């Protein structure tokens, strides 16, 4: 037996990534490759009156110019969440209407990137402009449906009076806002489309969902899925913005067919600020009522977010509310407004992230109101069951996250008074907040091969978006087969391989490792061997080249018995220099309960990544829109402020709990997203403790502290 699960194992793909050996979508070299440059709208609302492409077409090296007057042929996909989703229902270049600044209005193809870009500048466009609506505060909000079309309102208990002071002793009512954020992955959106004989195409594109992408592009180009191959072995960050095709991808694939040349399209950083998704602005009002012991008697949570004119995406902030704390009276409401912006989408913990900022801030406010320690307040209100599903949570160790975290942080030394802790001229604050994220999994397959050279190969069309999937898959196979991790080769991210599911909703590991486990067990059965060494001996005796097995794993009936969530708690220390309004985060402790931890190194790394992204949201990230043009006034990774090393302290991550075997045979729940939830609230709660100022609108820029 080779016990490796739970140990700290370096990334299988680490070396390839740091040496540049790993090939990303746009790096694929293909004979005869030509380059497309996107032309994007400089107004946010109106229409194109005239578009003159003559000069661009006459520019040396130009092969084609596509606009709404001559769009490449495209078929309308069914655009269903489960099969063929695209991010924006409107197909690119479908008419002359402009819905948001940065909308794609043309594609110039030339022999070099520079010539395509140069020609793109020569296109003359006259617009008919209309007044833009990009201000979330002034938008017209309507009752929202979820992205799956479900009603998002929920009421339990009594809400008739609406007067919370009549309900109980202590009340909190406050409104919290979060700003527009962009995903800003290190690898930009980019792809290469390579057609062969007009009836099959290979698409090299980073995607979080290889098989979904295959089906969607197949529908868009009118081919059966087996004629469309997606190659996506590496993704340089996605965070939710690389799950489905965007307009630039659709345009690249369809234009490549028309010009009969392999075509590359890279979206510039500037363009990416506007047309490849973002996290919507949110405004949330929370009302809490509790008795003097801190038992909650009512929670009301109303959330507003914005979408684009061309698709519907609701940031589902209220999803966490029935999960966190028990109360007899609960009311949830979601509203949505349309702005002249590109379509917002999933971004690390969509809904849970802003939702937990609001709820965990309000809980802190309630704790101060009642003069109860915020950890104690949470412990007194923990719920054993999901209050909408009415199902008990499996393997829940939330209380342990709180108590373990408190101990590691030294919470008992905290002074229960704002502005009570100082370090020289600096105010010091300690804050905490809870974390949660649902545990999801889907039906996937993996293939395992034992080869006569003593190695095992695992193959699946799942992928590693930077989370460590290559490594945990190898570890699962290593442990099941009894081989060292180095003897396992993992191939991911190619639609020719068995269906590996979606790297989204923190579900890749929870979906895939049970299938890898099953495939390994099955290949040993095929070989009639106890472990891989025995199987290799049989291979040599028999003269066979390999044993092979494919197995699938899918959720069963367990979802009828249990609700599945992961849990956590964040603790942080901040210092505030009031004279110059400088806020620094000086200490961080996160304790998580994610079922069984497969790789302690990559799991902790996922939590750290989430915390860093949450600190970015708390301190600096915001994508301002120009109120007149509607175009983002951030340009690149320098003007979109996110954390650098100097902004981040050492982040101490630990895990508690037990394998969640009610959830899946590996006992593992996901950990890609939970790390970011609650982070911003932990920071604002610490800022309150330091300064006595309650910051309810993110990010906490210096002006808000002065
Ligand atoms: Mo995640 S926002 O589901 O990629």
Keywords:
706 residues, alpha+beta, Aldehyde Oxidoreductase, domain 3, Aldehyde Oxidoreductase, domain 4, seven-stranded mixed sheet, 18 helices, binds dioxothiomolybdenum(VI) ion
Tell me the number of structural domains.
Answer: 3
**Rg estimate, integer Å:** 26 Å
| Helical stretch tally | 18
The kinds of small molecule bound in this structure are: dioxothiomolybdenum(VI) ion
**Unreliable runs:** none
**How does the helix and strand content classify structurally?**
alpha+beta
Helix content: 25-40%
What distance separates the N and C termini?
60 Å
Oligomeric state of shown chains? single chain
- Here the CATH topology of the largest domain equals Aldehyde Oxidoreductase, domain 4
Biggest sheet strand order reads: 3-5-1-13-10-11-12
Q: Strand share of the residues?
A: 15-25%
Described by strand count, sense and barrel closure, the largest sheet is: 7 strands, mixed
What's the β-strand tally? 27
- Specify the overall morphology: globular
The CATH architecture of the largest domain: 2-Layer Sandwich
Mean pLDDT: 96
- CATH superfamily placement of the largest domain: Aldehyde oxidase/xanthine dehydrogenase, molybdopterin binding domain
- What's the CATH C level of the largest domain? Alpha Beta
Describe the protein's topology.
Layout lengths: L13 H6 L14 E7 L5 E7 L1 H4 L4 E6 L29 E2 L5 E7 L2 H9 L2 E6 L12 E2 L10 E3 L7 H4 L2 E9 L11 E7 L3 E5 L5 H12 L6 E4 L15 H13 L3 E4 L2 H7 L6 E9 L5 E12 L13 H4 L4 E10 L13 H19 L3 H8 L3 E2 L4 E2 L5 H12 L11 E3 L2 E13 L5 E8 L4 E4 L9 H13 L6 E4 L16 H20 L4 H11 L3 E8 L4 H4 L3 E13 L4 E12 L6 H20 L31 E5 L23 H13 L10 H4 L1
Helix pairs in contact: 9-17, 12-13, 16-17
This protein binds dioxothiomolybdenum(VI) ion.
